[in-house]
């Protein structure tokens, strides 16, 4: 796995409960991601969005909320970034740059970006 995680600061809104409800079958992390080895709570994982076949998960970890970008056709190239609050950005071999804020992103998505959920926006590089 090759990944870059960048910490960003931003305006925080009232936090959404990203982990509400029961974990469904679609929320379970793919087998190629060993949550325990990274200190993540596998039972907390939730599928935030899917875009053009790429899946975006959130999982609770020792470092805070973690965003995982996963492409089923390239399972070894998944990307993760964690934040104890605020925002985190990720990019890597998948060619997708993600901007994630557990409490929600301010304003509208910048030009060239797609807002997938109130907490997640992406662009392709």
Overview in brief:
The protein is mainly beta. It is built from no helices and 9 strands.
Describe the structure.
- The chain has 125 residues and is mainly β.
- The chain has one domain (3-17, 27-124).
- The chain has no helices and nine strands.
- The protein has strands at residues 3-8, 46-51, 54-61, 64-70, 79-83, 87-92, 96-100, 114-117, 120-124.
- Strands 1-6-7-9-8 form a five-stranded antiparallel β-sheet, with no helix packed on it. A four-stranded antiparallel β-sheet has the order 2-3-4-5, with no helix packed on it.
- β3 (54-61) and β4 (64-70) form a beta hairpin.
- The chain is globular.
- It starts with a strand and ends with a strand.
Approximate shape: globular
Number of discrete helical segments: 0
Structural class: mainly beta
Q: Mind describing the biggest β-sheet? A: 5 strands, antiparallel
What is the H/E string? EEEEEEEEE
Give the low-pLDDT segments: 1-15
Mean pLDDT: 88
Into which percentage range does the β-strand content fall? 35-45%
What is the alpha-carbon Rg in Å? 13 Å
Number of E strands: 9
N-to-C span:
18 Å
Oligomer: single chain
- What is the total number of structural domains? 1
The level of helicity is: under 10%
| Spatial order of strands in the largest sheet | 1-6-7-9-8
């Amino acid at each position: 796995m090759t990944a870059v995680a960048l910490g960003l600061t931003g305006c925080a809104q009232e936090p959404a409960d990203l982990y509400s409800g029961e974990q469904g079958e679609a929320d379970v992390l793919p087998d190629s991601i060993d949550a325990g080895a990274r200190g993540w709570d596998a039972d907390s994982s939730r599928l935030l969005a899917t875009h053009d076949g790429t899946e975006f998960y959130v999982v609770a970890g020792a470092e805070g909320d973690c965003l995982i970008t996963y492409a089923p056709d390239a399972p070894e190239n998944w990307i993760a970034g964690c934040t104890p609050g605020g925002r985190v950005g990720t990019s890597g071999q998948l060619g997708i740059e993600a901007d994630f804020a557990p409490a929600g992103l301010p304003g509208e998505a910048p030009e060239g970006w797609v807002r997938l959920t109130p907490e997640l926006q992406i662009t392709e590089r």
